[in-house]
């Protein structure tokens, strides 16, 4: 297994370009199953997660071509069966359920297991399908969803921890081909949901309200092929902004939507960094003394759970006491034990992390556990004294396109050691 070795202490500066969004690309790739006609997707990031999703589509019978960032999918015929072997590597494979149900009126997909960030149930996805008229059978680790026909309904998808992003995507995709009107109340309003709705509308769907808590879908008889460019990845952007905050002297990220990252830029400005905006770029620079923060993760437009670990790394080295409360995935603190190995002072109380800033972190061998936790360890390694060796970097490759190469462009001393 590859490792990433970081020699800390280098100052970062310069400009990098943000890739297409992983969490937009995954459901958008799945949505191509809704039509027999070719769909052309641009700016699909080259990640192990997007490549798994393309493999799943191939398994289901679609013809897939990739030429750099452009992917063409033609799903002239599709199977409705995705077994464990095919889907187990990635939880987001659950988002083929909606399009298969919409198109074939049936889907047999192995259930995703839990993962290190928590239990991750799909009860809300299934509740939505049931409301559209589908029957659900869970047997032998597989979920079978089937319906002679789908009928529009009013569905509330808000759960105990707020709205569900992939649940909203899944029900929205199935409802595009239902008879009549579906109203999703308590919908997720993340930019990735809006991007998916934009793509579906280009395919001939009739969706209104994406980006708000109520999405209205008027079912159509069939969808057609379409061409779409995936939005820039707001979490990759946020991660590089934190890198710029921790080690930078003027780091600019290009190709970013200002609104999509405002929770992160507001937090960084409150922590004392200077944020300058140009048309589609942001520059972050030091601005004197930094301040501790109190942060709560929330659904969009709140502070994203996918930026919690990276922010934790920054606050570990910010003078004073910071407090982070994780409201979306209360157990998502796998990075804390590893940061402590590097000298961080963090105390966990349930879903809250109390961080006492320290002056120095020290390089150490650490273990990546999930995608964002791994990114946090790379960031800590950039700032730490000495050598940090991060193992299990396949987690990073799931969701950051060329993270090491982009950091080298900014002046980091970081290398990938092939196993
Ligand atoms: N939940 C339920 N029941 C469900 C679905 C979700 O109780 O049926 C709960 C979850 O356990 C969680 C909360 O609702 O507590 C929100 O989960 P959500 O369904 O929104 O998460 P997701 O759609 O599975 C996506 C992203 C995650 C991101 C979350 C929250 C993709 C592929 N994944 O997951 O991204 O953290 O939304 O914004 O879009 C990442 O990129 O590192 C990542 C984990």
* Integer count of domains: 2
Bound molecules: uridine-diphosphate-2(N-acetylglucosaminyl) butyric acid
CATH fold-level name of the largest domain? UDP-n-acetylglucosamine1-carboxyvinyl-transferase, Chain
Indicate the percent of residues in helices.
Answer: 25-40%
CATH architecture of the largest domain: Alpha-beta prism
Taking pLDDT < 50 over at least 5 consecutive residues as the criterion, the unreliable ranges are none
Structural class: alpha/beta
Cross-sheet strand order for the largest sheet:
22-23-1-24
List keywords for this structure.
UDP-n-acetylglucosamine1-carboxyvinyl-transferase, Chain; 32% helix; 14 helices; single chain; binds uridine-diphosphate-2(N-acetylglucosaminyl) butyric acid; 419 residues; 2 domains; four-stranded mixed β-sheet; alpha/beta
């Amino acid at each position: 297994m590859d490792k990433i070795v970081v020699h800390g202490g280098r100052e970062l500066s310069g400009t990098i370009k943000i890739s297409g969004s992983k969490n937009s690309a995954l459901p958008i790739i799945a949505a191509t199953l809704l039509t027999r006609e070719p769909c052309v997707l641009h700016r699909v990031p080259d990640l192990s997660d997007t490549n798994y999703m393309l493999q799943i589509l191939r398994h289901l019978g679609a013809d897939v071509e990739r030429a750099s960032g452009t992917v063409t999918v033609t799903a002239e015929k599709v199977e409705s069966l995705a077994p464990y072997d095919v889907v187990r590597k990635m939880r987001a494979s659950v988002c083929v359920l909606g399009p298969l149900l919409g198109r074939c009126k049936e889907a047999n997909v192995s259930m995703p297991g839990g993962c290190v960030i928590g239990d991750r149930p799909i009860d809300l996805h299934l509740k939505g399908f049931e409301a559209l008229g589908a029957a659900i059978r869970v047997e032998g680790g597989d979920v079978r969803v089937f319906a002679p026909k789908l009928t529009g309904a009013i569905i509330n998808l808000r759960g105990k921890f707020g709205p569900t992003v992939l649940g909203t995507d899944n029900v929205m995709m199935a409802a595009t081909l239902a008879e009549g009107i579906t109203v999703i109340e308590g919908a997720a309003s993340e930019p990735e949901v809006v991007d998916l709705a934009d793509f579906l509308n280009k395919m001939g769907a009739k969706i209104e309200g994406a980006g708000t808590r109520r999405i209205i879908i008027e079912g159509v008889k069939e969808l057609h092929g379409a061409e779409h460019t995936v939005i820039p990845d707001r979490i990759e952007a946020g991660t590089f902004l934190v890198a710029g905050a921790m080690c930078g002297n003027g780091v600019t990220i290009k190709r970013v939507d200002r609104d999509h990252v405002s929770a992160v830029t507001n937090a960084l400005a409150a922590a004392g960094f200077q944020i300058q905006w140009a048309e589609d770029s942001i520059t972050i620079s030091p601005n004197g003394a930094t301040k501790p923060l109190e942060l709560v993760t929330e659904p969009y437009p709140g502070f994203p759970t996918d930026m919690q670990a990276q922010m934790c790394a920054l606050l570990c080295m910010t003078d004073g006491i910071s407090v982070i409360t994780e409201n979306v995935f209360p157990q998502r603190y796998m990075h804390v034990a590893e940061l402590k190995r590097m000298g961080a002072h963090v105390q966990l109380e349930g879903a809250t992390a109390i961080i006492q800033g320290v002056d120095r972190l020290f390089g150490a061998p650490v273990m990546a556990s999930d995608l964002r936790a791994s990114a946090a360890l790379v960031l800590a390694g950039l700032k730490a004294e000495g050598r940090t060796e991060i193992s299990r970097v396949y987690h990073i490759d799931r969701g950051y396109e060329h993270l090491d190469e982009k950091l080298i462009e900014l002046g980091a001393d970081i290398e990938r050691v092939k196993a």
